[in-house]
C-alpha cells in the first residue's frame, strides 16, 4: 500500500470516529474561524459542516454570547493546559443545554499556535440530578436536625462519622466531641467486642432494632430504642437512630407497679402473690419442702380508720407492711390484698411446725404498739394458714381461699390468733356454697312460694292472722319445707335475699287480701334485720304497696338472733314500729333471755316455742316454763301465742295456763295462698276450747300434779321396755303423793280418799311390774300394765274433773 493511501485511510477513520462521538467537537483558528466540527456540533448552530467552516460565532449567535466564547477561546490558547468551563447554550431547536467544555490550544510541529480545540459534553441531566440530590440532602439534613430522634452515622469499626443536633442535645456532647468517638464509649451496656459482634451481624442482616442505655456527658444514662441499618450494600456505613424511651420506660415501670405492686405500701399485690404461689406449686417442682400461704387481717382496723381518719389509717397500713416484712425472710413474698388484708407465701420449710413459729412471730410483731403522728396505736391480727403440698392437687386460688377461710375461723374464735386450715371444714364450706348458689338460682327462677298457717284465738274462736312460711318447689326434690334448706344458711348473707323476697311477696298478698283484713307475720333473720339500710328498704316496700296498712305486717324475730346484738335490735325495731310495723319474739324460751332483755326489747308478742307445747303434758319442767312465759308476758303487758298445737288436749292446757292464741296442725296446716279465703270462710272453732278461762292460782297445783303423774307413768313404761331407771315407787315420795298430802284439808274427804286409794294401788302394781323387770320375765306383765293404765286413767279423770275440765 502506498503511503498516501495509508494516510488517507487514517484520515477517514479519524473523521468517522469524530462523527460518532456523543460530545460536540470543534476547532477554530486564532481568529475564531471554524476549521472543523462534528455532527453533534452541527446541532448547535443548526447548520452543516460546510456551512459552518470558514465562519465565526458572530455569524450564528448574538454578539454577547459570541464574545463570551471568544474570551474563553483566547484564554485557553494562552494557557499551558486545558481549561474546563461550564457554558449554557441554546441549540438551534430551542433546547437549552449546559455544556462542560474543555478547550486546549493546538500547535504545529514547530510550536506555532494554530488555534483552539474544543470538546463540549452535555451535563444538563447530571446537573439536574446533582441539584435534586443537593435538595434531598438539604431536606434530609433538616429532618435529621429537627427530628426528636438522635442520629449517628458510623463506620464499620463503630466510630461516629456524623451526628444530628438532636443527639447532641440528648447527650450533652458537641458534634465535634462526638465525631470520632467509638460506640462502646457511649453505650453503657456493651463492650468493644460486643460492638464489633453486633456491627458484623448488622452488616450481614441489613439492620437490627434493640434497646440499650446511652451515657451522657455528665455521666448519667438514659434508655433508648436503637434502630441500626446498613446504609447501602458495600457503602461501609451504618445509620443508627436513637429514640429516647424514658417516658415509655417510666410508664412501663408505673404499669408494673400498678400491675404487680400495691401503690400504698409498695408491697406485692394479689397478682404477684398468685405468681409466687404458682411458682411454688408448679408440677415440675419435686422438692419435699413445705410452702405456707398465710392470710392476715387486721383486727379492729375499721374503727381506727373511722376514729383517726384515712391518713393515719393509711400510714398505719404502711407501718404494718414494713413490720411484717422485717419478720419474713428474703425469699418470702408479702402482699397487700385489699384494705387491711395482707397475705404471704412462705416457701422452703422442712416441716409445718417451722412455719408455725414464723406465724407466731408475725402475731407477736403486730401486737407491739405503732407510733403514728405522736399517737400510740395498738392493733392485733387474725391469721389463717394453709400448706402445700396436700393429699390432693390444689390450685393457687384454692390455697388463697383456704388461708382466707382459716383466717375467718381465727377471727370467729376471738381474734389475735392464728388458725390452720382444716380440709373437712372446707368440704362443708363447699357444700354451703353450693346450697347458696342453688337458693339464689331458685329466687331467680321463681321456685319459692309462701304457704300460710292460720293463727286463732282458741277462747273466742276467731281467726286473728296468718304466718307466712316459705316453701321451695324444687325441680328434683319436690316441695321442701324451711327445715330442709334454711338451717345451713341462717348466718349467710343470702338470708337477706330470701328475706327480701319473702317480705315483698307477703306485702303483695296482703294487697290482694284486703277483704280478709287479717295481718300476716313474716319470719325475719336477725342478720337481715340488722343489715344497714333495712328500715329504709322496708319503708320503700311499704310505699310500693299503698293499699297495705303497715299494721297488717308483723315481723317475727328469733329470740337468739335479737339478743346477740341487743342495742342494734332495739334501735331497728323501734324505727320499724314508728312505721307501724308490729314485732313478735319467735321461739321464746329457747334462747338466753333475761327479764332485763325482755323489758328492753319493744316487741308486742312472745311466741312460745313448739318444743314446750309438745311435751308440756308429760314433762313438768316444760309445763313450768310455759307457765312462767305466760306470767312474764302478762307482767310485761305482752301478747303470747303458742305454736305447734297439734291436739285438742294441748289447746286445753294452754287455755288453762292463760294462753289463748295458738297455731299448729291441730288448727290447720300451712296452705297455699289460693286456699286461704275458702278456709277462713269455712273455719269452725273447736267447741271444747270456747270459753275456757285460765285456772286460778289456787287450782294450778292440780294441773302440775296431773303432769307429774303422767311423767311418772311414762318413766315406768320406759324402765320396763327400755331398761331405763325405775321411778319412785314409794307413793308418799312421788310428786302426786306429796300433793295429796299437802291438799288433805282442801279436798273433799271422799275425793281425797279415792285419789289416795287409786294412787297407792298404782304404786303397788308398779312395784310388781318393776320386780318382773328385774327377773327379766318380760312376757308376763301385760295384765299388770293394763291394770296400771286403768288406775292412771281414773286418777287423771278425777284431777281433770277437779279442775272443772271435761276430758
From TrEMBL:
SMART domains: EAL (SM00052), GGDEF (SM00267), PAC (SM00086), PAS (SM00091)
PAC domain: residues covered: 83-135, 208-257
Domain EAL: 432-684
Matching InterPro entries: Biofilm_reg_signaling, Chemoreceptor_zinc-bind_dom, EAL_dom, EAL_sf, GGDEF_dom, Nucleotide_cyclase, PAC, PAS
Domain GGDEF: 289-423
Domain PAS: 10-80, 136-206
UniProt-listed Gene3D superfamilies: 3.30.70.270, Aspartate receptor, ligand-binding domain, EAL domain, PAS domain
SUPFAM superfamilies cross-referenced by the UniProt entry: EAL domain-like, Nucleotide cyclase, PYP-like sensor domain (PAS domain)
Superkingdom assignment: Bacteria
Family annotation (NCBIfam families): GGDEF, sensory_box
Name of the featured protein: GGDEF domain-containing protein
Organism the protein comes from: Bacterioplanes sanyensis
Amino acid at each position: 500500500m502506498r503511503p498516501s493511501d495509508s494516510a488517507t485511510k487514517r484520515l477517514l477513520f479519524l473523521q468517522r470516529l469524530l462523527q460518532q462521538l456523543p460530545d460536540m467537537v470543534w476547532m477554530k483558528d486564532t481568529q475564531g474561524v471554524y476549521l472543523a466540527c462534528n455532527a453533534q456540533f452541527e446541532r448547535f448552530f443548526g447548520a452543516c459542516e460546510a456551512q459552518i467552516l470558514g465562519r465565526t460565532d458572530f455569524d450564528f449567535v448574538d454578539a454577547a454570547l459570541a464574545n463570551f466564547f471568544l474570551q474563553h477561546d483566547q484564554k485557553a490558547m494562552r494557557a499551558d493546559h486545558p481549561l474546563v468551563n461550564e457554558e449554557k447554550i441554546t441549540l438551534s431547536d430551542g433546547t437549552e443545554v449546559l455544556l462542560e467544555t474543555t478547550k486546549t490550544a493546538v500547535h504545529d510541529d514547530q510550536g506555532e499556535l494554530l488555534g483552539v480545540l474544543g470538546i463540549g459534553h452535555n451535563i444538563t441531566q447530571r446537573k439536574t440530578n446533582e441539584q435534586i440530590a443537593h435538595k434531598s440532602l438539604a431536606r434530609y439534613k433538616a429532618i435529621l436536625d429537627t427530628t426528636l430522634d438522635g442520629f449517628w452515622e458510623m463506620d464499620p469499626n463503630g466510630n461516629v462519622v456524623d451526628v444530628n443536633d438532636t443527639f447532641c442535645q440528648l447527650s450533652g456532647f458537641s458534634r465535634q466531641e462526638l465525631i470520632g468517638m467509638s460506640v462502646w464509649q457511649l453505650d453503657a451496656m456493651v463492650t468493644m467486642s460486643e460492638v464489633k459482634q453486633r456491627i458484623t451481624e448488622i452488616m450481614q442482616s441489613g439492620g437490627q432494632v434493640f434497646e440499650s442505655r446511652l451515657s451522657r456527658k455528665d455521666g448519667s444514662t438514659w434508655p433508648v430504642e436503637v434502630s441500626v441499618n446498613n446504609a447501602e450494600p458495600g457503602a461501609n456505613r451504618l445509620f443508627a437512630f436513637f429514640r429516647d424511651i424514658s417516658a415509655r420506660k417510666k410508664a412501663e415501670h408505673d404499669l408494673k407497679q400498678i400491675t404487680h405492686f400495691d401503690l400504698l405500701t409498695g408491697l406485692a399485690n394479689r397478682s404477684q402473690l398468685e405468681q409466687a404461689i404458682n411458682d411454688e406449686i408448679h408440677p415440675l417442682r419435686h422438692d419435699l419442702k413445705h410452702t405456707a400461704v398465710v392470710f392476715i387481717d387486721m383486727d379492729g382496723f375499721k374503727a381506727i380508720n373511722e376514729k383517726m381518719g384515712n391518713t393515719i389509717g393509711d400510714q398505719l397500713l404502711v407501718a404494718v407492711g414494713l413490720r411484717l416484712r422485717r419478720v419474713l425472710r428474703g425469699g418470702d413474698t408479702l402482699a397487700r390484698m385489699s384494705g387491711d388484708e395482707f397475705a404471704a407465701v412462705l416457701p422452703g420449710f422442712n416441716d409445718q411446725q417451722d412455719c408455725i413459729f414464723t406465724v407466731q412471730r408475725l402475731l407477736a410483731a403486730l401486737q407491739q404498739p405503732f407510733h403514728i403522728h405522736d399517737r400510740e396505736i395498738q392493733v392485733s391480727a387474725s391469721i389463717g394458714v394453709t400448706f402445700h403440698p396436700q393429699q390432693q392437687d390444689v390450685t393457687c386460688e384454692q390455697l388463697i381461699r383456704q388461708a382466707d377461710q382459716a383466717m375467718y375461723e381465727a377471727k370467729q374464735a376471738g381474734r389475735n390468733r392464728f388458725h390452720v386450715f382444716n380440709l373437712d371444714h372446707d368440704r362443708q364450706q363447699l357444700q354451703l356454697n353450693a346450697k347458696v348458689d342453688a337458693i339464689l338460682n331458685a329466687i331467680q327462677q321463681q321456685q319459692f312460694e309462701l304457704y300460710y298457717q292460720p293463727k286463732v284465738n282458741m277462747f273466742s274462736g276467731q281467726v286473728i292472722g296468718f304466718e307466712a312460711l316459705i316453701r321451695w318447689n324444687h325441680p328434683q326434690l319436690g316441695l321442701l319445707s324451711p327445715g330442709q334448706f334454711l338451717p345451713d344458711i341462717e348466718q349467710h348473707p343470702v338470708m337477706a335475699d330470701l328475706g327480701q323476697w319473702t317480705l315483698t311477696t307477703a306485702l303483695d298478698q296482703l294487697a290482694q287480701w284486703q277483704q280478709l283484713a287479717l295481718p300476716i307475720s313474716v319470719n325475719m333473720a336477725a342478720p337481715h334485720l340488722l343489715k344497714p339500710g333495712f328500715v329504709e328498704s322496708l319503708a320503700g316496700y311499704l310505699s310500693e304497696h299503698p293499699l297495705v296498712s303497715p299494721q297488717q305486717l308483723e315481723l317475727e324475730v328469733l329470740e337468739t338472733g335479737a339478743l346477740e346484738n341487743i342495742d342494734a335490735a332495739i334501735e331497728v325495731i323501734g324505727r320499724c314500729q314508728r312505721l307501724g310495723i308490729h314485732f313478735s319474739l319467735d321461739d321464746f324460751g329457747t334462747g338466753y333471755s333475761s327479764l332485763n332483755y325482755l323489758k328492753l326489747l319493744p316487741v308486742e308478742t312472745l311466741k312460745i316455742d313448739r318444743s314446750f307445747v309438745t311435751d308440756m303434758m308429760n314433762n313438768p319442767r316444760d309445763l313450768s316454763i310455759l307457765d312462767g312465759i305466760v306470767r312474764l308476758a302478762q307482767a310485761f303487758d305482752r301478747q303470747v301465742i303458742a305454736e305447734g298445737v297439734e291436739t285438742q288436749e294441748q289447746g286445753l292446757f294452754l287455755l288453762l295456763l292463760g294462753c289463748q292464741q295458738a297455731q299448729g296442725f291441730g288448727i290447720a296446716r300451712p296452705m297455699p295462698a289460693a286456699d286461704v279465703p275458702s278456709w277462713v270462710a269455712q273455719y269452725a272453732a273447736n267447741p271444747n276450747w270456747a270459753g275456757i278461762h285460765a285456772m286460778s292460782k289456787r287450782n294450778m297445783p292440780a294441773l302440775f300434779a296431773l303432769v307429774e303423774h303422767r311423767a311418772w307413768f311414762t318413766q315406768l313404761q320406759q324402765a320396763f321396755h327400755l331398761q331405763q331407771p325405775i321411778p319412785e315407787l314409794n307413793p308418799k315420795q312421788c310428786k302426786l303423793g306429796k300433793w295429796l298430802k299437802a291438799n288433805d284439808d282442801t279436798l273433799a274427804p271422799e275425793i281425797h280418799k279415792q285419789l289416795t286409794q287409786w294412787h297407792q294401788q298404782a304404786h303397788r302394781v308398779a312395784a310388781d311390774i318393776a320386780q318382773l323387770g328385774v327377773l327379766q320375765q318380760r312376757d308376763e306383765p301385760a295384765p299388770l300394765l293394763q291394770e296400771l293404765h286403768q288406775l292412771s286413767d281414773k286418777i287423771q279423770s278425777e284431777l281433770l274433773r277437779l279442775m272443772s275440765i271435761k276430758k
